Amino acid sequence: MDGSIDTARQWGTLMKTLVTASAIVALASALGGEEVKIGYIDSGRIFTEYRGTADIETQLNEELRSWQGEERTRLGEIEQLEAQLESQRLMLSDESQRTKQTEIDRKRREYQEYVQGVWGPGGLLEQRNIELTQPIIERINVAIEKIASAEHYTMVLDIADGFVVYAVPGLDVTDKVIEELNREFEPLLAAGEKLKLAVFDVHEADKMARELGYGEQITQFLEAALVATNLFELVRGDDFQRAMTENMVVRTDEQIELSVALDVGRDARAEVILLSEVSVTPSEIEIESVLYDVMTGRELAQGRGTAANEEELESAVSVLTGSILEKVRL
C-alpha cells in the first residue's frame, strides 16, 4: 500500500511537470519572438512568513477551543447518563431502563452529528478556515501580480504544487512577495512623508440626509481636517476626475462599491482612500468613515462622529478624524 501511494504521487508530480513544461513551450510559441520571463514562488513559505496569517491562526484556534469545549460537555453528559443508568439498573423497571437508554441513544446521535458538523467534510472548521484564509489568498495574489507586472514576468509558478522540479535561484520571487505583504505591518509613513489620499464624496445614506444635503459639507470638513494633520496629500483635480471617468463613476444616491473605489484610487495614483457616509435621524447626525490601503484593499482604520445639529458637524468630523489617526500606524 505505501509503495503504491508513493508511486502514484511520483507519477502525479511527473505528469504535472510535463504538462507545465508543455504549457510553457506552447506559451513561448504563441508569443512568437517576445521574451518569456518565468518566476516561481513557494506558497508554503509565504503563508508561514506572512505576518497577516498569525491573526487568522489565533482566531481559528479560539473558535476551535469553543467547539472542543462543547464537544467535551456533550460527551460528559452522555457518560454521566450511562453511569447513572448502570448504577440504578437494579432499581429501575424495564420500561424506565428503556426510557433512559432511549435518551442516551438520542444524545449520542446528537453528539455524533455535532462532531461531524464541526470536524467532518464541509463542517464548521473547514468553512471557517476557508472564510478566514480567502482574504489572505487575495492579498497574496495582489502582491504577486504587482511584482510580476513591475518586473515583467510572463508567468509565476508555485513550487508548492509540485510543478517545478528545478529552477535557478534567481527566478524565485518568494522573498519579494513576503516583503511586499509584510509592508502593511510597517509604519505607513517615514518621517516627513505624506500619504497620497483620495477622499470620495460622502454618501448620504437616507432620505433625510439627502434632503439636508450634508454630504458635500462633510466632505469638505474631512478633507480640511486630514490635510491639517500634515500626514496626507490630497489627490484631486484632473488626476482624480480622469480616474473617475475611466472607471465610469457617476454621482448617484448609491454608495460607490469598494472594488470600484480602489480601482479609482490606483488609477489616480493614491495610496489610501477614504469612504464615508452620513445618516440622519430626528435626534442625531451620524458620520462614519473607513480608510483603505489602495494596494491591498485592507481596511486601515475607521472612525465615527455624531452631531446633534448642523453647527456641530465640524466638531463631529474632528472626533472622527482623531479616531482614524489613532488607529493608523504612523
From TrEMBL:
GO terms for molecular function: unfolded protein binding. Keywords: Signal. SUPFAM superfamilies: OmpH-like. GO terms for biological process: protein stabilization. It comes from the Bacteria. One of its GO terms (cellular component) is cytosol. The keyword Signal applies. Pfam families: OmpH (PF03938). Belongs to the Skp family. This is OmpH family outer membrane protein. It comes from candidate division TA06 bacterium DG_24.
